[in-house]
Amino acid sequence: MNSENFTLSEKIVSSSYIRQGCQARRSHEQLIRHLLEQGKCPEEGWSESTIELFLNELAVMDSNNFLGNCGVGEREGRVASSLVARRHYRLIHGIGRSGDIAAIQPKAAGSSLLNKLTNSVVLDILKLSGVRSAASCFVVPMATGMSLTLCFLTLRHRRPKARYIIWPRIDQKSCFKAMITAGFEPVVVENVLEGDELRTDLEAVERKICELGADNILCVHSTTSCFAPRVPDRLEELATICAKHSIPHIVNNAYGVQSSKCMHLIQQGARVGRIDTFVQSLDKNFMVPVGGAIIAGFDESFIQEISKMYPGRASASPSLDVLITLLTLGTSGYKKLLSERKEIYSFLAEELKSLASAHGERLLHTPHNPISLAMSLDRLQNESDKAVTQLGSMLFTRQVSGARVIPLGKEQTISGHTFRGFMSHSETYPCPYLNAASAVGITREDVTLCIKRLDKCLKTLRKEGNAAKSSSPVPPLSQGLSSQAAAGEESVQVLIKKNNIN
């Protein structure tokens, strides 16, 4: 309804009522105008009616929704199912063009506007979360692993002689396969044990650079968010090394946006040294469906270069999902989620520490990991070799998802490379352990229920272990004596025979 239509409506319904409706409409439009003017996430979240109004306004700007449109091409935004059309708010054309995922589509002004606004709002959130000097970013409809591959492929054009990627070890398959898929050879740098924590071996990184030659190295591929007892890489020191040797630096920040510590490490690394891009997951940081990531960096031209490397158009679904989510939350709502996550991390640590003490275990000391925690399983391992792995399956069948049980000595071969002690980020971590994480969206009820079920599982396993020990066959005393007597008599007979004693 524009002003002319409102004026016409006054001929049908009382003008006072129409003016009131017009004012209500303007309150929605005012919010949309601020978004278009500033390109930032609103302070307060929008209502669903405002978001739907905005998305419908965008949709009618796409050619597939033009009332008189006549499409004779191979891609005209045709959808067979009305359910599918409603699921996507009739934004069917996707984002980008064949040569650039960030390009404007002539047929789809609304979808193109959606894409540009989403990237702008997400950049605002990255700055708000701690990386204030980030210059550019874009949402890509691929998860973290493939998004890292896209970054590596872009660097190949800048460093055509490079064969290697230096990678401080983290036992997560997708980031390793991202390097293999891009056609490079990962150079695995083992972590060093400091107390309970596994930390970056900076000396080993320097040695590998000198050994291989800086020109032969595509980049250093570091990590922030990870499972304890591994902790975020020493980004400031790695960034300094990369700047010193003129080697690009790609950071896997998979679920680090929710952690002020991880984001601070990226900001500081870029300040003192070199970080080219940092990649983060949409689902893990913003509670949207799996399938999207954010590629961000400090050099706008390089981020544009990566976006142009993406072949073809792309799905708009991840962009649509994250924009709806951030408009719903607003910056105040997202900050509240991050604050609650941090509080529950402390609560989870206390509960795990108490439970560990009750079962003769301990909470591993990993203060540099702001999201994940680990509890030793030494005593459980001593009671039964199979008990550790059994605990993992017991938790899963009791609907405790996300908890990881890490046994000792597991081997895993990925693309021809064998990792010893796989899942523990180390060839020789000293004890088996259990992981739990306080990620965005977690509640105190989640923690309480997890601890309750974990406690029951540990008690059950201990009871079974004790029963197994007590049921092992032990010969009766009389049987033991008679066996000894028989053995003694047999020995005497042997001696008599040997010495020809009659």
Automatic annotation (TrEMBL):
The keyword Cytoplasm applies. It catalyses: O-phospho-L-seryl-tRNA(Sec) + selenophosphate + H2O = L-selenocysteinyl-tRNA(Sec) + 2 phosphate. Pyridoxal 5'-phosphate binds at R75. One of its GO terms (cellular component) is cytoplasm. Keywords: Cytoplasm, Protein biosynthesis, Pyridoxal phosphate, RNA-binding, Selenium, Transferase, tRNA-binding. One of its GO terms (molecular function) is O-phosphoseryl-tRNA(Sec) selenium transferase activity. Belongs to the SepSecS family. This is O-phosphoseryl-tRNA(Sec) selenium transferase. The lineage of its organism: Eukaryota, Metazoa, Chordata, Craniata, Vertebrata.
